[in-house]
Amino acid sequence: MSGITRRTVIAGAAALACPSLLWAGDEAETRSYGTDALDIYRAPAPRGAVIYVHGGAWRAGSRKAVDAKPAWFNAMNLDFVSIDYPMLPKTPVTGQIRAVRQAIDWSFAHIAPAERTIVMGHSAGAHLAAMATLTGWEPRPAGVIVNDSGAVDLITLARVNEGHLPFGTASAFKDRAQWGALSPAYNLAKTLPPLLAIWSGARGHGLSMSNFVTVARSRGADVSLFDGSAYRHAEVNRTLGTGKIPDLERAVTGFVTKVLRA
Q1: What is the DSSP code string of the chain?
Q2: Is the dihedral of CA 235, 238, 243, 248 positive or negative?
Q3: pLDDT of residue 27
Q4: 216-253 burial string, b = 16+ CB within 10 Å, else e?
Q5: Residue 16's pLDDT is what?
Q6: Whether pTM exceeds 0.70
Q7: Contact 133, 196 (CB under 8 A)
Q8: Which long-range contacts (CB under 8 A, 24 or more apart) does 2-6 make?
Q9: 4 CB-contact burial (10 Å; exposed 0-12 / middle 13-18 / buried 19+)
Q10: CA 176 – CA 4 distance, rounded (Å)
Protein backbone atom coordinates (compact mmCIF):
# COMPACT_ATOMS: atom_id res chain seq x y z
CA MET A 1 0.00 0.00 0.00
CA SER A 2 2.92 2.38 -0.68
CA GLY A 3 3.93 2.72 2.96
CA ILE A 4 0.37 2.93 4.29
CA THR A 5 -0.46 0.01 6.55
CA ARG A 6 -3.79 -1.73 7.02
CA ARG A 7 -3.90 -0.18 10.49
CA THR A 8 -3.66 3.33 9.05
CA VAL A 9 -6.35 2.63 6.47
CA ILE A 10 -8.69 1.29 9.15
CA ALA A 11 -8.00 4.27 11.42
CA GLY A 12 -8.61 6.69 8.57
CA ALA A 13 -11.88 5.01 7.62
CA ALA A 14 -13.04 5.10 11.21
CA ALA A 15 -12.15 8.76 11.52
CA LEU A 16 -14.09 9.62 8.38
CA ALA A 17 -17.12 7.74 9.63
CA CYS A 18 -16.96 9.13 13.15
CA PRO A 19 -14.23 11.68 13.96
CA SER A 20 -15.02 11.51 17.68
CA LEU A 21 -13.52 8.02 17.74
CA LEU A 22 -10.10 9.67 17.84
CA TRP A 23 -10.90 11.90 20.83
CA ALA A 24 -9.77 9.41 23.44
CA GLY A 25 -6.29 9.00 21.94
CA ASP A 26 -6.29 5.18 22.23
CA GLU A 27 -3.61 4.94 19.54
CA ALA A 28 -1.43 7.69 20.93
CA GLU A 29 1.91 7.40 22.70
CA THR A 30 1.90 9.91 25.56
CA ARG A 31 5.11 11.64 26.59
CA SER A 32 6.04 14.50 28.89
CA TYR A 33 7.90 17.48 27.48
CA GLY A 34 8.18 19.38 30.75
CA THR A 35 5.33 19.94 33.16
CA ASP A 36 2.80 19.06 30.44
CA ALA A 37 2.19 16.16 28.08
CA LEU A 38 1.86 15.49 24.39
CA ASP A 39 0.43 12.63 22.34
CA ILE A 40 2.27 11.12 19.39
CA TYR A 41 0.34 9.34 16.64
CA ARG A 42 2.97 7.45 14.67
CA ALA A 43 2.90 7.20 10.89
CA PRO A 44 3.92 3.87 9.31
CA ALA A 45 6.89 5.35 7.46
CA PRO A 46 7.29 8.92 8.68
CA ARG A 47 8.88 11.54 6.46
CA GLY A 48 8.22 14.34 8.91
CA ALA A 49 5.77 15.53 11.55
CA VAL A 50 2.89 17.87 12.26
CA ILE A 51 2.69 19.49 15.70
CA TYR A 52 -0.87 20.50 16.61
CA VAL A 53 -1.76 23.19 19.17
CA HIS A 54 -5.42 22.99 20.23
CA GLY A 55 -7.74 25.93 20.81
CA GLY A 56 -10.00 26.73 23.75
CA ALA A 57 -9.77 30.49 24.47
CA TRP A 58 -6.45 30.03 26.30
CA ARG A 59 -8.28 28.48 29.27
CA ALA A 60 -9.78 25.20 28.04
CA GLY A 61 -9.32 22.43 25.48
CA SER A 62 -7.24 19.28 25.37
CA ARG A 63 -4.61 17.53 23.33
CA LYS A 64 -7.16 14.71 22.99
CA ALA A 65 -9.45 16.85 20.78
CA VAL A 66 -7.89 15.77 17.53
CA ASP A 67 -10.94 14.56 15.54
CA ALA A 68 -9.85 12.97 12.21
CA LYS A 69 -6.50 14.73 11.96
CA PRO A 70 -4.10 12.02 13.21
CA ALA A 71 -5.21 9.34 10.73
CA TRP A 72 -5.36 11.91 7.93
CA PHE A 73 -1.82 13.16 8.47
CA ASN A 74 -0.52 9.64 9.23
CA ALA A 75 -1.79 8.61 5.78
CA MET A 76 0.59 11.28 4.38
CA ASN A 77 3.39 9.54 6.31
CA LEU A 78 3.59 12.31 8.89
CA ASP A 79 3.75 11.71 12.61
CA PHE A 80 1.05 13.74 14.36
CA VAL A 81 1.94 15.35 17.70
CA SER A 82 -0.86 16.94 19.75
CA ILE A 83 0.26 18.99 22.73
CA ASP A 84 -1.21 20.18 25.99
CA TYR A 85 -0.11 23.47 27.53
CA PRO A 86 -0.92 25.24 30.84
CA MET A 87 -4.17 27.17 31.02
CA LEU A 88 -5.40 30.53 32.19
CA PRO A 89 -5.87 31.80 34.83
CA LYS A 90 -2.97 29.91 36.45
CA THR A 91 -0.59 30.53 33.54
CA PRO A 92 -0.62 33.82 31.59
CA VAL A 93 -0.50 33.87 27.81
CA THR A 94 3.22 34.66 27.87
CA GLY A 95 3.80 31.47 29.88
CA GLN A 96 1.65 29.51 27.45
CA ILE A 97 3.78 30.73 24.55
CA ARG A 98 6.93 29.51 26.32
CA ALA A 99 5.32 26.13 27.05
CA VAL A 100 4.24 25.68 23.43
CA ARG A 101 7.75 26.50 22.31
CA GLN A 102 9.14 23.98 24.78
CA ALA A 103 6.89 21.31 23.26
CA ILE A 104 7.98 22.31 19.75
CA ASP A 105 11.67 22.07 20.68
CA TRP A 106 11.07 18.68 22.34
CA SER A 107 9.43 17.45 19.15
CA PHE A 108 12.30 18.75 17.03
CA ALA A 109 14.69 16.75 19.20
CA HIS A 110 12.65 13.54 19.54
CA ILE A 111 10.17 13.25 16.64
CA ALA A 112 11.42 15.05 13.51
CA PRO A 113 13.92 17.85 12.89
CA ALA A 114 12.71 21.39 12.38
CA GLU A 115 13.16 21.25 8.61
CA ARG A 116 10.79 18.23 8.47
CA THR A 117 8.14 19.59 10.84
CA ILE A 118 5.02 21.69 10.28
CA VAL A 119 3.43 23.47 13.23
CA MET A 120 -0.33 23.92 13.10
CA GLY A 121 -2.72 25.58 15.54
CA HIS A 122 -6.39 26.47 15.61
CA SER A 123 -8.03 29.46 17.31
CA ALA A 124 -6.11 30.22 20.53
CA GLY A 125 -3.72 27.47 19.49
CA ALA A 126 -3.07 29.25 16.19
CA HIS A 127 -2.19 32.41 18.09
CA LEU A 128 0.17 30.52 20.40
CA ALA A 129 1.72 28.59 17.50
CA ALA A 130 2.34 31.84 15.61
CA MET A 131 3.90 33.53 18.64
CA ALA A 132 6.10 30.48 19.31
CA THR A 133 7.38 30.08 15.74
CA LEU A 134 7.22 33.41 13.90
CA THR A 135 8.52 35.99 16.35
CA GLY A 136 12.22 35.18 16.38
CA TRP A 137 12.42 31.70 17.88
CA GLU A 138 14.99 29.36 16.35
CA PRO A 139 15.09 26.92 14.76
CA ARG A 140 12.18 27.66 12.45
CA PRO A 141 9.88 24.82 11.37
CA ALA A 142 9.45 23.91 7.71
CA GLY A 143 6.06 25.61 7.70
CA VAL A 144 3.32 27.00 9.93
CA ILE A 145 -0.46 26.63 9.49
CA VAL A 146 -2.33 29.44 11.23
CA ASN A 147 -5.92 28.22 11.33
CA ASP A 148 -8.44 30.95 12.07
CA SER A 149 -7.41 33.20 14.92
CA GLY A 150 -8.46 36.82 15.19
CA ALA A 151 -5.81 37.16 17.90
CA VAL A 152 -3.04 37.29 15.30
CA ASP A 153 -3.93 41.00 15.31
CA LEU A 154 -5.74 41.94 18.51
CA ILE A 155 -5.85 45.62 17.65
CA THR A 156 -7.65 45.05 14.35
CA LEU A 157 -9.93 42.46 15.96
CA ALA A 158 -11.01 45.01 18.56
CA ARG A 159 -11.52 47.68 15.92
CA VAL A 160 -13.95 45.42 14.07
CA ASN A 161 -15.81 44.78 17.33
CA GLU A 162 -16.49 48.42 18.29
CA GLY A 163 -13.27 48.78 20.24
CA HIS A 164 -13.62 45.63 22.32
CA LEU A 165 -12.31 42.11 21.97
CA PRO A 166 -14.83 39.25 21.70
CA PHE A 167 -15.70 37.63 25.04
CA GLY A 168 -13.32 34.65 25.06
CA THR A 169 -10.42 36.69 23.74
CA ALA A 170 -11.13 39.64 26.04
CA SER A 171 -10.72 37.47 29.14
CA ALA A 172 -7.26 36.42 27.97
CA PHE A 173 -6.03 39.89 26.96
CA LYS A 174 -7.39 42.27 29.59
CA ASP A 175 -4.53 44.78 29.34
CA ARG A 176 -4.98 46.88 26.21
CA ALA A 177 -1.41 48.09 26.52
CA GLN A 178 -0.26 44.53 25.77
CA TRP A 179 -2.38 43.95 22.67
CA GLY A 180 0.38 44.95 20.29
CA ALA A 181 3.09 42.99 22.11
CA LEU A 182 0.95 39.84 22.12
CA SER A 183 -0.20 40.08 18.50
CA PRO A 184 1.93 38.04 16.06
CA ALA A 185 1.23 40.60 13.31
CA TYR A 186 3.31 43.26 15.12
CA ASN A 187 6.14 40.99 16.21
CA LEU A 188 7.06 38.94 13.15
CA ALA A 189 10.70 38.06 12.63
CA LYS A 190 12.57 39.38 9.62
CA THR A 191 12.86 35.88 8.17
CA LEU A 192 9.85 33.58 8.22
CA PRO A 193 9.02 30.02 7.18
CA PRO A 194 6.24 29.42 4.63
CA LEU A 195 2.76 30.03 6.04
CA LEU A 196 -0.75 28.82 5.34
CA ALA A 197 -3.33 31.28 6.66
CA ILE A 198 -6.89 30.01 7.07
CA TRP A 199 -9.85 32.04 8.25
CA SER A 200 -13.54 31.45 8.82
CA GLY A 201 -16.59 33.67 8.82
CA ALA A 202 -16.09 34.58 12.48
CA ARG A 203 -16.45 38.32 12.95
CA GLY A 204 -13.17 40.14 12.49
CA HIS A 205 -11.09 37.08 11.70
CA GLY A 206 -10.80 37.75 7.99
CA LEU A 207 -9.60 41.32 8.51
CA SER A 208 -7.21 40.38 11.32
CA MET A 209 -5.74 37.55 9.29
CA SER A 210 -5.49 39.81 6.23
CA ASN A 211 -3.38 42.32 8.12
CA PHE A 212 -1.24 39.51 9.55
CA VAL A 213 -0.67 38.15 6.02
CA THR A 214 0.17 41.61 4.65
CA VAL A 215 2.87 42.09 7.28
CA ALA A 216 4.24 38.57 6.74
CA ARG A 217 4.48 39.15 3.01
CA SER A 218 6.26 42.44 3.61
CA ARG A 219 8.93 40.33 5.37
CA GLY A 220 9.22 38.21 2.23
CA ALA A 221 7.26 35.25 3.57
CA ASP A 222 5.74 32.73 1.18
CA VAL A 223 2.10 32.83 2.30
CA SER A 224 -0.68 30.57 1.02
CA LEU A 225 -4.30 31.47 1.78
CA PHE A 226 -7.59 29.71 2.34
CA ASP A 227 -10.67 31.90 2.48
CA GLY A 228 -13.06 29.92 4.66
CA SER A 229 -15.47 32.79 5.26
CA ALA A 230 -18.33 30.52 4.17
CA TYR A 231 -17.61 28.26 7.15
CA ARG A 232 -17.88 28.47 10.93
CA HIS A 233 -14.93 28.91 13.25
CA ALA A 234 -14.98 25.35 14.60
CA GLU A 235 -15.82 23.89 11.20
CA VAL A 236 -12.49 24.76 9.57
CA ASN A 237 -10.76 22.70 12.24
CA ARG A 238 -13.04 19.81 13.18
CA THR A 239 -13.79 18.75 9.61
CA LEU A 240 -10.15 18.56 8.51
CA GLY A 241 -9.54 15.03 7.29
CA THR A 242 -13.21 14.11 6.97
CA GLY A 243 -13.66 15.16 3.33
CA LYS A 244 -16.42 17.64 4.22
CA ILE A 245 -14.49 20.69 2.94
CA PRO A 246 -12.45 19.37 0.00
CA ASP A 247 -11.01 22.76 -0.93
CA LEU A 248 -9.62 23.21 2.56
CA GLU A 249 -8.03 19.78 2.50
CA ARG A 250 -6.49 20.48 -0.90
CA ALA A 251 -5.03 23.70 0.51
CA VAL A 252 -3.49 21.85 3.45
CA THR A 253 -2.14 18.91 1.44
CA GLY A 254 -0.76 21.30 -1.18
CA PHE A 255 0.99 23.26 1.55
CA VAL A 256 2.44 20.09 3.09
CA THR A 257 3.71 18.95 -0.29
CA LYS A 258 5.27 22.34 -1.02
CA VAL A 259 7.14 22.78 2.26
CA LEU A 260 8.33 19.19 2.71
CA ARG A 261 9.00 18.44 -0.99
CA ALA A 262 9.45 14.73 -0.40
Answers
A1: -TT--HHHHHHHHHHHH-GGGGSS-TTPEEEESSSSEEEEE--SS-S-EEEEE--STTT---TT--TTHHHHHHTTT-EEEEE----TTTS-HHHHHHHHHHHHHHHHHHT--GGGEEEEEETHHHHHHHHHHSSS-SSPPSEEEEES-GGGGHHHHHHHTTTS--HHHHTT---GGGTTTT-GGGS--SS---EEEEEESSTTHHHHHHHHHHHHHHTT--EEEEEETTS-TTHHHHTTTTTSSHHHHHHHHHHHHHHH--
A2: positive
A3: 85
A4: beeeebebbebbbeebebebbbbbbbbeebeebbebbe
A5: 38
A6: yes
A7: no
A8: 3/44, 3/45, 3/77, 4/44, 4/75, 4/77, 5/44
A9: middle
A10: 49
CA distance 37 to 84: 6
Contact 240, 184 (CB under 8 A): no
Q: How many residues appear in the chain?
A: 262
Give the tens place of pLDDT for each residue, 116-140: 999 999 999 999 999 999 999 999 9
pLDDT score recorded for residue 197: 98
pLDDT in tens, 62-75: 999 999 999 999 99
Q: What pairing do the DSSP bridges indicate for beta strands 223-228 and 195-200?
A: parallel
Q: Which residue ranges of the chain lie beneath pLDDT 70?
A: 1-26, 262
Q: Which amino acid type is present at position 224? A: S
